Each structure stands twice: as structure tokens, then as C-alpha cells.
Amino acid sequence: MSVGVTFGFTNGIITMLSLITGLYATNVNRVGIIGAILALLITDPLSDAYSMYNSQKLINKETALDIGKTAFFSQVALQCIFLLIIIFSKTVKQGLAISYILGVTMTIAYDRYNKASVNETIKNLLAIALLVFFTYIVDKQVYKYFK
Q1: Which of 23, 35, 136, 137 gets the most CB atoms within 10 Å of its CB?
Q2: Residue 69, exposed/middle/buried by CB under 10 A (0-12, 13-18, 19+)?
Q3: How many C-beta neighbours within 10 Å does residue 14 have?
């Protein structure tokens, strides 16, 4: 897999799970979550792809644009999947649960496809879980404080 796909995939899963979890922790309704995902879907892949492009230009100008484009499209595709889950779920909680299941499943499948070791897959899942959990804790405290 290319650098762009790996970056877009990993970043997309972590970003979407953390965003949806944080919004859920602060009791944002479904419309608010959909709006936030759409805003993120527009800005995040573009800024990440541009950053990837700029950093890759320093390494290899010939492949920089392809890596940036690949990062953009893989991230947009992945984030659209999470958006559709929230849109078509009956409740935010159900959408969050489906998103977690999909995030774990996709991470395992992606690691298997790339022939990552079981230890690497476990490390990836733990890193994602820690980031999402940290987001939940912080946002829950923000909600309690500003409520």
C-alpha cells in the first residue's frame, strides 16, 4: 500500500471515531454530528493531503502529488462511510456502536492485507482505542464543566 493510502486510512478512522465519540460525549444531536462530519469531510482531507504533498515534495517531487491525491481520496472515501452510518442509524448511540465495529474490522482487515503481524495489529487497535477513549474523557469533562 502506498504512503497516501495508509495515512488516509489510519487518519480517517482515528479522526472519525474520535469526532463521533466526542460529539456523543457532549450530547450533540444527530443533525449536529452530521454537520460536524460534513465540515470535517471538506477541510480535513484537503489539509492533510496538502500537508502530505508538501512533506513528500522534500523527499521525492515526482511522487508527491500522487501521494497527496491518494491520501485525499482514501480519507474522503473512509469518512463518507462513517457519515452514512450516522445518517442511516436509528440513533446516535447505534451509529457510534456500528462505527466502532466497522473501525475495528477495517483496521484488522487492512493490517491483514498488508501482512502486518498480530502484535502490530494489536498495537494499532490499542492506539486507536486510547485516542478515542481520551477524546471521550476530555469531552465528557468539557460537557460537565460548561453544562
Answers
A1: 23
A2: middle
A3: 18
